[in-house]
Design goal:
OB fold (Dihydrolipoamide Acetyltransferase, E2P); five-stranded mixed β-barrel; two-stranded antiparallel ribbon; Thermonucl_AS; signal; nuclease; endonuclease; EC 3.1.31.1
């Protein structure tokens, strides 16, 4: 029975991965990946939210993402699509790095608790906040979802 389930689910597991090169960094949490078939995929980094363009630290978050993965090979593990048709996914690169975690560690993103219950990501955010890293240097940083609602 386990083998049957595996064979039924295996095609979905393969379908849920994208491998390719990052050819554009739109902002801190959105990139474009070109796969081996020359198709582009817009990827929204899973479980985090970086500051919006007009917010403090948005340029720093974008530069961090660019420095980490621009024109590098990545693997995207998809969680699905958002309402704009972008793939929501975890971006793995380098020696086992995960972009969601790296952005949180440096204080360039919030853990998006509305869509993620991952305690380890919440802990990383708390650590960056306690250390006053990145956007946590501000006395009252505004989460992007609140900023979007008010603008």
């Amino acid at each position: 029975m386990r083998n049957l389930i595996f064979f039924l689910l295996a095609p979905m597991l393969v379908f849920a991965q994208i491998e390719g090169k990052v050819v554009k960094v739109k902002d801190g949490d959105t990139v474009v990946v070109l796969d081996q078939d020359k198709r582009t995929h817009t990827i929204r980094v899973a479980d985090i939210d970086c500051p919006e363009y007009a917010q403090p630290y948005s340029k720093v978050a974008k530069k961090f993402t660019s420095d980490e993965i621009y024109f590098k090979e990545v693997m995207v593990i998809s969680k699905g699509k958002d309402r704009y048709g972008r793939t929501i996914g975890f971006i793995r690169y380098g020696e086992g790095k995960d972009l969601s975690r790296e952005l949180l560690k440096c204080g360039y993103a919030w853990h998006y608790k509305k869509y993620s219950k991952d305690k380890s990501l919440a802990d990383i955010e708390v650590e960056a906040k306690e250390r006053g890293l990145g956007l946590w240097q501000d006395t009252a940083p505004v989460p992007p979802w609140e900023w979007r609602r008010n603008h």
